[in-house]
Amino acid sequence: MLSFDEMIELLRTFTPRNEITLEEVPAPQKLATYSFAFTADISNGLTGDAEDEVASGRFVLLHEPGGQDTWEGDFRCVTFMRADVDSQMQEDPLLPEVGWNWLLDSLQATGARLNAPSGTVTRVSSASFGKLSPRNDDSEIEIRASWSPVIKSVEEIFSHVEGWCNLMTEVAGLPPIPDGVASISSARRRV
To answer: With a threshold of 0.90, does the pTM exceed it?
Structure first.
């Protein structure tokens, strides 16, 4: 039997690439008997301040001994991410389908096994008026998703978190880190 406490302790050791800042946050309490959550902010690494943030998200791991009917398992990953996109991408009618495929491909690339994926992909476009009119118009993509991780050992949860982080960097337009190349600086973690 998998220990949720062991899995959480292991998740606390997860180190993403250096543009991602993770912060443990209070998890929702009414969705399952056990839960754990963290947020991620992704910068483009150019200035090192809040203005270079290009994506953010939340990852929640739920555990219900015996599962829930719709989960197809005892665990459920629930995620949200948003990222800036250029206006041309936002106008592409295929963006929602592409966003969903980015999620599934990111999980598959890390070897994450899962059941019952579900979610939504939303295009958001904002225009500024009045005293805010000097601002540029904004375009974003939001992906809300959940799936049941198929895990036989606590270490297998890493592939799900890594896939989610890869999705966020992909959507944010950061270049992939080639296999065998390590990031030079360490990930930032908020306390």
So the answer is: no
